[in-house]
Amino acid sequence: MKKSKIISIFLAIMMIFATLLPMSTPVHADDKVADNSVLQKIKKSKKLVVGTSADYPPLEFTTSDNGKTKYVGVDIELARDIAKDLGVKLVVKNMSFDSLLVALETGKVDMVISAMTPTVERKQSIDFSKIYYRPSGEYFLINKRDQNKYKKIKDFNGKTVGAQTGSIQYNLIEKQMKKSKVKGLGKINNLVLALQSNKVAGVVMEEMTAKAYAHNNKNVIAVRSDLREQQAGNAIAIAKGQTGLVKAVNKTIDRVQKENLINNKYLPEAAKYMKTAQKTNTMMKYAPYFIKGIGYTIVITIFSVIIGIVLGIVLALMRLSKNKILHAISVAYIEFIRGTPQMVQILFVYFGVGALISNLSAVVAGIIAIGLNSGAYVAEDIRSGINSIAKGQTEAARSLGLSQAKTYRYVIIPQALKNIWPALGNEFITLLKDSSLVSVIGVSELMYQTELIQTSTYRGVLPLFIAMIIYFIMTFTLSRILNLFERKMKHND
Fold it and tell me: How far is 410 from 405, CA to CA, in rounded Å?
């Protein structure tokens, strides 16, 4: 490669970084959210958006209400009371626990209520309300067959112990179980699944949550741990500088504690839903969940394919262009996208770009991220297809008086499309499966709905198996449709 070409590509990459840097540079929460602006936004929109990780019964979990997802638990009831006192409607956003604080700092949620402990590290970037609930202790959730094997910290020496990523339990394992390996996952139900599949020897969680899983799953048992308590209790996370909102929330917490609503109302209500789930947790009841997930998956795939094809054609033509700037920009984009994980791109679009576009929904962000990623791969497929066409085709078309644009449109691209159709088909099928990645930002596609079913039914393997069958049916159907078009193109020959 010539030196000038290398310099051009390098400058194009720098241009991309220069564009992205202002959006991705870490800033403090108080720089992103103006002082007392959140309370004003809540009162203006008449909505309180609360972020949570609804897989932690009895504090926050999901249940099925006539085929619709209903968020329930102690923390959800507290959120309802806060919304009621503010005179607004409650909106719950369910996402991974380790994404909650990012969502708070970027303004995607107004507050986080998810059994969160106000640690020193967290207080540096966010504010907390008063303590509203003090856990009674940490427990080991273990397989029932191992109840005589694992009782103390030392029993787990050399073993792998699981905890929710970013949680206080994860930190406790690191600090007090140094002879054990820690495995962090974003969802509690996945940790329980890892336990039952012997990926971890035990899972550390708060007493009520451990007992809830043990009560609804007869294959596991909750054992009191000898981990030394370092928790101050659970509090509500709020962005820095929101003194008015903190004051309003603390007022509700004072009333809740004065009336002892957690013990008298919240916990009994959560127990009722857990008992109902135990009796009615059949898969047929959750068919609407799977149907809703299929719908979102198909929509995400279709729009991502459209973006990928359009962008791919543009990038391919730019890369084949004799214009050095266009060529360099295309190469830089393709290499950058192919060199970064797709999940990181999804998180960046939702939280990074979404910080500048406050009304950017998770669905739109997911479609954009997957479409932009697909465009880089489609571009290379199209470029290879165009390069496979003999130069004589172009020369013949130009000699007949066709312009370069019409030559590509009527002669080159149709033939290239036929040559690369199998590769494009594989890309479309990959897009359908990759749509599952947007569940990390709370999009209700098939994988997200499957996780809700796992949480509601306390079953790990069966919902995954059903989801796997559904994905297979969709990809098999899509592959047959693509093969039909391929046969028609061959027939035209």
Answer: 9
Burial of 415 (0-12, 13-18, 19+ CB in 10 A): middle
H or E, element range at 43? helix 37-45
Write the DSSP symbol of residue 408: I
Instruction: Let me know how many helices (H) and strands (E) the chain has, helices first.
Output: 22, 12
Which of 123-127, 191-195, 205-209, 223-227 has the weakest average pLDDT?
205-209
Give the pLDDT confidence of 423-478 residue by residue, as tens digits. Answer: 888 889 999 998 999 988 888 899 988 888 887 777 778 888 999 999 999 999 99
Q: Which of 471, 265, 441, 479 lies closest to 362 in space, CA to CA?
A: 441
Q: What is the 3-state secondary structure (H, E, C) of 47-71?
A: EEEEEECCCECCCEEEEEECCEEEE
- The C-alpha atoms of residue 299 and residue 472 are separated, in whole angstroms, by 17
Phi, psi (5° rounding) for residue 394? Answer: -65, -45
CB 92 within 8 A of CB 105: no
**Reported pTM:** 0.75
Which two tokens mark 464?
């995954």
Instruction: Tell me which amino acid residue 86 is.
Output: L
Residue 243 neighbours by CB under 8 Å, 6+ apart: 35, 36
